[in-house]
Every structure is written in C-alpha cells, then in structure tokens.
Amino acid sequence: MAHDVVADQETLQQLAVWCEQFSPLVGVSEFSGGGQEPAGDASLLLDVTGVRSWFGGEENLVRQAVAALHQRGYCVQAALADTIGAAWAVAHFGWSAPVETSAGEDKARERFSVAVNASPGAVKFRMIASGEHLPALRPLPVAALRLEESALELLQQLGIQRIHTLLSLPRASLSARFGQGVLRRLDQAAGTVEEVLVTQRPPPEFSARRSLEYPTALGQVLEVAAQQVLAQVTQDLVAQNRAALQFDVHFDCVLPSGCTTVRFRVDLFRPVTDVEHLWHLVRLQWEKTKLPGPVREIRVRIPWVVARTQQQQELFAGSDGTQERALARFVDRLRSRLGCAGVLQPLLQPDVQPECACQFVPAAVHRSLPAVHYRDEVPVMREPLMAGDRPLRIWDVPRPVQVLAGSPAGPPVRFRDQHGWHEVRHFWGPERIETGWWRGHTVRRDYYRVECATGQRFWLFRQLTDGQWFLHGVFA
Fold first, then answer.
1. CA–CA separation, 355 vs 332, rounded Å?
2. What is the mean pLDDT of the chain?
C-alpha cells in the first residue's frame, strides 16, 4: 500500500513529542534495512530509566503508553528490555518466536521500543526481565538485529536463520565473513557495546560570535577578539559539563565586491575545554591562510561535544595522565599543521593475512571498542605467537624473489633479492597461512624464517597456488 513518506515522518515527529509524557528522552529509529520490516518503517525509542516509580511500576508504565497510543488509533507493538537492540528486536520479531523471561523478577530495565503503524488494531507488548535479553534474542531471526541487506543475504545463503546459530559461530570468523556491522549489532543487542539514544529534541548548540564595530585586518585586534569568542564558548561548555571534540571558526571578511567567509575546522584527539590550547590550534590554521580582506565578525561553533570527565590531579608530575594529555596536545598541533591524513595511528585487525592485520586510520577519528566475548563463544584453537615470530619490518606488497630449494615443496637454500644472493644457514618453518573461502581470492602460503650466512634474518613465503617465492619482511 502506497504511503506518503514525508507525512509519515511529520506524524512520527509529532508523536515523539507527545510521548515525552512517558519519558524525557524520546528518539526515532529510522532503520530501513533488509528483513521483514517494510522499507521506511520507523520506531519510537523511549528511555524509561528511573521513571517507573511515577507510573506505579514498569508494567503500568508500558500499559499506559501502549493504551494511550491505541486510543489515538495506532496498532502498537512494544517491548521493554535492557538494551535498545533487544527491545527493537522483540517489538518487531518477538511475536512468532518464544521469549524466555524470568518470572517474578522486579529489576530495573532501561529502555523499551514502540513499533507504530498507521492503522487501528490490537495492543501487544512484551517485558523482558533484566539480564534476560540475550536468551530472549536467541530464537529470533537474524533480521531482528537490524542488519544490512547484503549481510542478511549472505547469512541466508549460509543457512543461518536464527540468532542462536549466529552466536554459536566464533567471533574471529564473523568479522571476516560478514564485516564489522554484524558484530556491532550483536554487541549492541547484547549490551556489551553501548548504543546511544539520539533524542528527538536537538541538543543545545554551543556557539559564540563577536562583531567588530569597524572591519579590521590588524592581527593583534583579531587575536584578542578570537580569544574572547573562544573563552565565551568554552565557558558555556563547562557550565553544561561538556567538552569539545571538534570546532569551527569563521572569519567574515569584507571585500569590495561583497563579503566572504574563511572557515577553519579543527578535530581534536581528546575532549578539550582549554582556551589556550584551542587558540593555539586556530593560530596554526590562521598562519597557513591569508585573509582576503578586513574582518567584521568572528564566529565559533562546536558541532561535536561529549560529556566532560572530571579527573583528579596527580600528586607527582610525569604520571600516565599527564603523558596522555601531552600526547593529545602534540597530536592536535601536528594535525593542524599536516592535516587529518598526515597523522595516523595503527589499528589492529583480526586477520591472519599479515599485510591485512593492521591498517592506519586518522588519529582523531579512531575510537577503539573494548573486546567482548559471549559465554557460549567457540574459542579459536591457535598457538600464540612468540617474540621473534614476526619481523620488525613488513612490506605492504610482498617482493618477488628468486629461490633455490632442495625440493619443490622444501625450504629455501639460497635466494636472491635486489642486493644479490643470500646463503641460508638456518630456517624455521613452514608456517602455513590461509584465508577462508568467503574472502573471494584465496591466499595460501608457507612462511619460513631464515637466517643467512651474514647473520641477517628474513621472512620468506612460497605461494602454494603457483610455487612462486616472495620476501615479506626483515627481522633486523
């Protein structure tokens, strides 16, 4: 049945505001991925932590909410659970599969999700006891995890229909086969990775401006004005217990043909409220840019803020906290001079292929997630790597070399690289490394650690597909 998407969104926004009588935090989930849910359908997400006493308990709260929506002419499916992912899954898919809960428990739940359709009908809701959201997810279809269509199609091809089947697979293989999206949705539903509820009402905007009575190009005047604007906006941040992770500075310049704006954007490595540090970063950007004309107004806006953490000062200088703050300031200054792509940090990947086991990401963008494990996870049996098993330097692209071996499948005796021939005195191996069939092009290699007559040590491998030899790294 055709529907007006714009009208539906407006109605949903109005309904979210109306639902604030049941929770001060109301958000809209606009997931429209694959699965049985109609494209464009959306849900209301309410955080009811700490408000159950105002309604005589959680069950009464849910009953009042769904009954009020039903009276307005909506068919309501609701679920109350510890996590957003579990509540969404049970509200949409929990009616055809049994949901196990612990009867008689009166523990605090956190959130519930209300699925709203535009036609009158019966009221349905489920309440999942605190701590029982993972058992409630097991019998549900994998579409309940809010996965992308491509991931759902691959799961269907492999015959994985239910979440309990997905949970029984080793986590190390899930990211390689299906990408990080499947693990992220699993962890969000299980509660091991936090999912932020984006409220319907926009958060307060942190911005400040300073208009000059007469446009000027004098550097000292502009410096004082810019510092005053930064001080004002940081005071607002501290008053709201917030810190900046990104800020924009705009210089409105006057030209004979009109006005133009010069904008500086600075990404921060750690949350900051220090005016002196922010001004130093702005000045670094300013030095690289020539203002086209006199400035009549300076504006500062902070689009990305996070909660400000209070940290006790250290008794002795040189502690870990002091070093972390110094490192953050150093990274911020480097990024201001070199740009976002100029300062990178390594990010380890769960990949057995050596050149894919690490990637470099912008230092201020990467936010690592904690490693989590399910109780029923099948462990991967593998010998741990010891010191010296991997070289200190590894090439992104292995270099082909000429190798003489005692037999076609034997260890190398001599090999030749760009510096000439090397005589192998000792070798360790082979260590076989293979990638899964789901990766497409299969990688099958036998690696050898070799020590030459000169004392140098190298990391060589033979491709099992064609017998070609490559140099992949050096140990010293």
1. 29
2. 80
Kindly report the pTM of this predicted structure.
0.54
User: pLDDT by residue (tens digit) across 337-379?
Assistant: 887 778 888 888 778 888 888 888 887 654 443 333 333 434 4
H or E element, residue 27: strand 25-29
Domains and CATH numbers, the chain: 5-190 (no CATH), 206-319 (3.30.1490.100), 393-474 (no CATH)
The tokens describing 71, both together, are 């009276």
Between CA 25 and CA 20 the distance in angstroms is 7
pLDDT given for residue 371 in this prediction: 38
Q: Angle, to 10 degrees, between the axis of helix 180-190 and the axis of helix 84-93?
A: 90
Q: What does the alpha-carbon distance between residue 99 and residue 236 come to, in Å, rounded to a whole number?
A: 47
Tokens of 268: 């921060």
Give Cβ neighbours of residue 355 (< 8 Å, ≥ 6 apart). Answer: 394, 395, 396, 397, 398, 472
Tokens standing for residue 402 = 């000429």
Please write the tens of the pLDDT for every residue from 73-112. Answer: 888 888 888 898 999 998 888 766 554 444 443 443 444 5
Sheet of strand 393-400: strand arrangement: 393-400, 469-474, 457-463, 444-452, 420-434, 412-417, 402-405
Query: What is the Cα–Cα distance from 144 to 389, expressed in whole angstroms?
Result: 42
How far apart CA 183 and CA 189 sit, in angstroms, is 10
Q: Quick one: tokens of 8? A: 């539906």
Question: Is the separation of the CB atoms in 194 and 91 below 8 Å?
Answer: no
3-state secondary structure of 232: helix
Identity of the residue numbered 35:
G
Q: Tell me the Cα Rg of the chain.
A: 29
Dig out the tokens for 327 from the structure. Answer: 């490192």
Q: Contact 446/405 with Cβ under 8 angstroms?
A: no
Read off the DSSP letter of residue 141.
B
Rounded Cα distance, 83 and 474, in Å:
48
At 264, the amino acid letter reads F
Could you say which DSSP state residue 142 is in? Answer: G
Amino acid (1-letter code) at residue 102 = S
- Residue 252's contacts (CB-CB under 8 Å, 6 or more residues apart) are 259, 260, 261, 295, 296, 297, 298, 299
> Ramachandran region of residue 152, left (φ > 0), alpha (ψ -120 to 50) or beta?
alpha
- Quick check: helix, strand or coil at residue 150? helix
Q: Which of 76, 108, 106, 84 is nearest to 28 (CA)?
A: 84
